[in-house]
Amino acid sequence: MTYPFSLPSSPSADAPPLLRNYIGGEFVASDAHFENRSPVTGDLLALVSEAGTTEVNQAVAAARAALTGPWGQFDVQQRAALLVKIADGIERRFEEFVAAEVADTGRPIHQARTLDIARGVANFRTFAQLISTASSEIFESRAADGSDQFSYVVRKPLGVVGIISPWNLPMLLLTWKVAPALAMGNCVVVKPSEETPSSATLLAEVMHEAGVPRGVFNLVHGFGPGSAGEALTRHKDVAAITFTGESRTGSAIMKAVADDVKEISFELGGKNAAVVFADADFEAAVEGVRRSSFTNAGQVCLCSERVYVERPIFERFVAALKQKTEAMKIGFPDDANVDMGPVISRGHRDKVLSYYRLAVDEGATVVTGGGTPQFGDERDGGAYVEPTILTGLPDSARCVTEEIFGPVCHIAPFDAEDEVVRRVNDSAYGLAACVWTTSLARAHRVSRQMHTGLVWVNTWFSRDLRTPFGGTKLSGLGREGGRHSLDFYSELSTICIKL
Ligand code: NAD
Ligand code: 6OD
């Protein structure tokens, strides 16, 4: 597999490209580098400059300086116009972004087009529109001395915002935070996952082309502990950290920012449930659960790894989902008919496979899957696993309580509404749930009782970007989306005027 785009730093046509950091408006290499490998074949795609404390310090200093430069004078309309220019820039290089995302992740190319990169564009357009129409709060009141006063709220940027993102939806999740952070006038230092450095590097090129002032957007590549991630979270001049990733990483970051009491926003892991009632549209529910369990090889934080099906339709549901799952085409991401690519890396594949083995040890019935597909070609060097359906485990089994983050679901029967609500809520996580039913009253009643930040009824991962997004319990802290993002990425300041 060849690398999909040629960056200016490639020393020669046959050498691997070097993906560099972007600091203060310049692409800069560092002394250390790491490898970026294809999850499809295991081949080397690129070398990536690893930022350490020195580069992170430079990036934060550049961001800090930019806050008081021309960027600090941009009004709302100028910032909105710049976000639209960035969205246009991504659209102009749309297929390069698609190729970069597919190369790093191995996801089906149609998914990269319709979900990942399309959402990258939408994130910038949405927040451009939101700031253009945002209003402020104003309160009229009477002071103790009888004079009239009015109080109003202004929004100021937080300052330098550190953005740390995961590998599962690289462009979507990074831009979901970059767009509102810039919209509110902040400067950012972003650290994408070490597994997926490419679309973020292209984004830096687009920022450059769009004329984003130097230092407003900075990119540092690297790992978490002892590398760019930790250096960013511990930097004194970083006002806020917004993070998407594993719950235990969120916990480590929380400790790292505690001394400086930085603002934080966390979107973390999940062990999401789908509940299928006997009155559901059966075909829609089976296809919906197939999508919610296996999209992106199960590597969406919102994926359903626990499925509860009302007993009268349990056997029929398991058989129908098995049939649909076995019909899925697993293969090369650039095949237009492919349904599922590899997981992100061989390391992650081994983790997922260890859960498949654990499920058997815990007494599961493997309805389908449970291993790795064999292709007899270069894909055998990649990170493929079979989509897997399990039944027969108790709710307390590790495979039913721990996030696996692969293409796997466990299906269990239930008998009563209050019973299934209790079982769904009996989880350390609280990100999302799906309810499949044709009863409007039940849909509302059950959804209202879910201890999750999101509930979808008769659908999954359908998003209105103005709504709050986030999780409860181990699944996160705070909400982003719409005005909730505008609130997080700004410091609210109240001014009271005596009239
Ligand atoms: P991860 O926590 O391992 O890594 C995420 C990012 O954090 C990476 O950029 C990594 O380099 C960095 N990092 C790791 N340790 C760090 C540290 N100590 N300090 C600073 N940075 C550090 O997560 P991942 O494996 O990349 O992503 C998968 C996880 O993300 C899953 O648990 C998934 O559920 C979760 N996720 C949640 C949401 C959500 O919206 N709730 C969305 C996507 C993914
Ligand atoms: O749609 C979003 O805005 C969002 N943050 C999705 C997260 C998906 C998790 O993998």
Task: Describe this entry's structure for a reader.
The chain has 499 residues and is of the alpha/beta class. The chain folds into two domains: 18-268 and 475-498, Aldehyde Dehydrogenase, Chain A, domain 1; 272-464, Aldehyde Dehydrogenase, Chain A, domain 2 (3-Layer(aba) Sandwich). It has 15 helices and 23 strands. The strands form six sheets. The protein has a seven-stranded mixed beta sheet with strand order 15-16-17-14-13-19-20, with helices on both faces. The chain has a six-stranded mixed beta sheet with strand order 10-9-8-11-12-22, with helices on both faces. Helix 3 crosses helix 4 (109-133) and helix 4 (109-133) packs parallel to helix 5 (170-183). It is globular. The structure holds nicotinamide-adenine-dinucleotide (NAD) and (2E,4E)-2-amino-6-oxohexa-2,4-dienoic acid. The site of nicotinamide-adenine-dinucleotide has 32 residues, from helix 7 and helix 8. Nicotinamide-adenine-dinucleotide binds next to helix 7 and helix 8.
